[in-house]
Amino acid sequence: MASADKLINTDVPEKDVFALHFLQSLSNLRTQSPLNSPNKSIDRVRKIKKAAYVSMARAAGGTSRLWSRALLRRAAKDDNKSVRFSRRKRKVTWKISSKRKRSNQRAPVVEEAAERLRNLVPGGGGMETSKLMEETAHYIKCLSMQVKVMQCLVDGLSQK
Amino acid sequence: MDLTGGFGARSGGVGPCREPIGLESLHLGDEFRQLVTTLPPENAGGSFTALLELPPTQAVELLHFTDSSSSQVAAVTGIGGEIAPPLHSFGGTLAFPSNSVLMERAARFSVIATEQQNGNISGETPTSSVPSNSSANLDRVKTEPAETDSSQRLISDSAIENQIPSPSQNNRNGKRKDFEKKGKSSTKKNKSSEENEKLPYVHVRARRGQATDSHSLAERARREKINARMKLLQELVPGCDKIQGTALVLDEIINHVQSLQRQVEMLSMRLAAVNPRIDFNLDTILASENGSLMDGSFNGTPMQLAWPHQAIETEQSFHHRQLPPPPTQQWPFDGLNQPVWGREEDQADGNDNSNLMAVSENVMVASANLHPNQVKMEL
């Protein structure tokens, strides 16, 4: 899926990359599960969901995107054993505090929507509105790709 | 242009005292040149005072020039406003009513002359660079907009008087701010604010009838950035083109993101339900997966042929069997796989099977090589 916009790059890899990552994560999940042997379905669901998100973040570009980086960091924080995530040096973002103070002046309609988006998109808390929208665009693309992959998987498995 | 060049040279020496560049072009008397050349070295420390003293002397020359062409004097009186009449009344005399008045003017000259200099020395540069200069200078002249108008008029007067080859350009440079305010010039009428997102600096032109504050310029640039991205989002989200108004569009975008996340959760629940033990027989998964993903004439049998040893794999055997040494590199996806996968899509259907086999075999081998104890599971 190539992006039409030349200035803002929102390219995401093809479906196969997502599929590959997801399948590998599932296979890893399978190696992990006999150790814990979760019988409850909820744990399994949560594991699969987390595997889906993390694999999506990896497929979408690893740490080169803000939202994927935040997602991976969040996942690594929960259980360090299962997710490999190397920490980068944190860039100090001092702009945020000074810009937040003036946020009231900047199109409050847009800003309140941006707040809601920040809650939805991972890693959105530290971003300016314009950057946030760019990340949202990429995030939407990746999410839809992941949904397609999972849909294929479910259909294929339920057919058999 | 000559005089303004001289002006520019003077004002450019506010910091370091520069060699007067425009002097050679000035066809002035020798004594004037001496005056001008000696004065900057004198006041090396306080170059600003040099500035203040010089323009009056040059203003004197102005007066001499005005004598020579009486017709242009009329122009001066017509345009000059309150400055020209007092200067004109001096005629050939060197007496000034008050040095302080002229010093004020000179102070403003210095600012405007820098602007002039930037505009003149850059000469034939595209006008896009000039607005950025003017906007940079706008901060300095912001506080006295009224006087700058008059002083700009004076400079443009001198430009007219000296019969500059390109008076229109000077007028444009000198009077840009006027034009923005009065809307006179035809060249600037159809300005459009440009925004180049690739460059580190955003070159924004002020539109007609809008404020030229640096703050509001930045605000406007930012707003347009946000609008551009919102358009991009609108294209992504289905059904957002029809909606009018940014608030509704944003609501729609947020709803879309939420629905996608809910879909992921739903699908993961279904996946968990489909395989109650999460023992995915990966060959079957890949068979079904590739059947739905790839467009080629793919059938699952070549895959199963490829790994006969994995067809009977159970969880225990996965752990206990002797694994071949793991690959040294940790499965670099972006480097290795994307070209592989890309390649198989490019090729014809006949080659599909072999490539897919190779790829899937890689997948199997790699996942099999991940020793459970060793791997920090790359989820």
Question: Could you please describe the fold and organization of this structure?
Answer:
Chain B: One of its GO terms (molecular function) is DNA-binding transcription factor activity. Chain B: Its main location: nucleus. Chain B: Pfam families: HLH (PF00010). The complex is a heterodimer of chains A (160) and B (379). Chain A is mainly alpha-helical and 160 residues long. Chain A contains six helices and no strands. In chain A, 66% of the residues lie in helices and 0% in strands. Chain A is globular. With 379 residues, chain B is an all-alpha fold. Chain B is 64% helix and 0% strand. In chain B, helix 1 runs antiparallel to helix 3. The two termini of chain B are 70 Å apart. The N terminus and C terminus of chain B are likely disordered. At the A-B interface, helix 1, helix 2, helix 5 and helix 6 of A face helix 11, helix 12, helix 13, helix 15 and helix 16 of B.
Mind telling me the C-alpha Rg of chain B? 38 Å
Reading the helices and strands of chain A in chain order gives HHHHHH
Structural class of chain A: mainly alpha
Average pLDDT metric of chain A: 76
In what range is the share of β-strand residues of chain B? under 5%
Let me know the average pLDDT of chain B: 53
- The dominant shape of chain B is elongated
The secondary structure category of chain B is: mainly alpha
**Main sheet summary of chain B:** none
Uncertain spans of chain B:
1-26, 39-46, 69-96, 118-196, 295-379
Distance between the first and last residues' Cα of chain B: 70 Å
Topology of chain B as a string of helices (H) and strands (E):
HHHHHHHHHHHHHHHHH
Major beta sheet of chain A, specifics? none
Q: Measured on Cα atoms, how large is the radius of gyration of chain A?
A: 18 Å
Number of helices of chain A: 6
How many beta strands in the DSSP annotation of chain A? 0
GO molecular function, one term (chain B): DNA-binding transcription factor activity
Domain BHLH (chain B): 210-260
Main location (chain B): nucleus
Region (Disordered) (chain B): 117-202, 316-351
